[in-house]
Specification:
mainly alpha, rod-shaped, 10 helices
Length: about 260
């Protein structure tokens, strides 16, 4: 079988080497792309290039959305306000700490504020719920990127299969048309390269965003533990002041605040 394929493909590839400039013909509506190597290679990749292009567009859109989100969240960080909240907690004034944290866009301060407004019930549970919401918001669209990383190479592999099938069909037809055989091989290679390229490009940002989410999770856990330790210390000293906290109004304000950050 190998000998037969070598015997048939060798003269075809040799003829192709002596016939430069063999390309797939662009469709009439894409004549504007003639001479553009990117457009020409896209159509040389075969029909599977369209779903590959769709995957690329989705990946780029998600990457830009996440980059913008992380830049915006970074600009909202307010460590000075978090220190003020800690200072109020250390003095035992929970109402003052909640007032300082109220309205903050910093996810850490926002989580502390959520916990302090449930000091009459379960601070630990409130902090866990708030931290989970922050992590969920930070990890939005990560599953889309994960799917892109898996789907792009598979589409490239599908293009490889269809391209090689086209090349073998040209050989079996008996015409031994060099342009058809080389076109099938080229379709296979282009689709594979594009699929792998998209997956590698997306994987870099996927790992970067995962690292940012893991870092945020660590910061939320550390902040929540600090608040719990401070409150436990205040309870042991019996100097906890929660008289001015209104759970009903705070719950309503919290709902509006989280809705505005989505």
């Amino acid at each position: 079988m190998v000998t037969l394929l070598t015997t048939k493909l060798a003269p075809i590839l040799a003829a192709e080497a002596g016939t430069p400039g063999v390309h797939h013909t662009l469709p009439g509506w894409a004549a504007w792309g003639k001479g553009n190597i990117i457009v020409e290679k896209f159509f040389e990749g075969g029909p599977v290039m369209w779903p590959i292009l769709a995957v690329l567009i989705v990946a780029i859109a998600v990457i830009f959305e996440r980059l913008f989100w992380w830049i915006r969240e970074g600009s909202r960080r307010d460590p000075a306000k978090l220190d003020k909240v800690y200072s109020a907690l250390e003095s035992g004034n929970i109402s003052a700490a909640a007032k300082v944290a109220s309205g903050s866009q910093d996810p850490l301060v926002r989580t502390v504020w959520h916990g302090l407004n449930h000091v009459h019930s379960s601070v630990e549970g409130a902090l866990q719920v708030s931290s989970g919401e922050e992590i969920q918001r930070a990890g939005r669209f990560m599953s889309v990127m994960d799917t892109t990383i898996t789907l792009a190479p598979l589409l490239g592999l599908l293009g490889t299969v269809t391209g090689i099938m086209g090349a073998f069909n040209a050989v079996q037809s008996g015409g031994l048309d060099p342009s058809k055989v080389s076109g099938g091989i080229g379709e296979a290679l282009i689709a594979t390269a594009c699929g792998l390229g998209i997956a590698m490009f997306t994987l870099i940002f996927f790992n970067y965003f995962n690292a940012r989410v893991a870092r945020l999770q660590f910061e939320l856990e550390a902040t929540s533990n600090n608040v719990i330790l401070m409150l436990n210390s205040l309870r042991n000293k019996n100097i906890l002041d929660t008289t001015s906290i209104s759970s009903e109004s705070d719950a309503r304000q919290q709902s509006q605040q989280f809705a505005s950050t989505n």
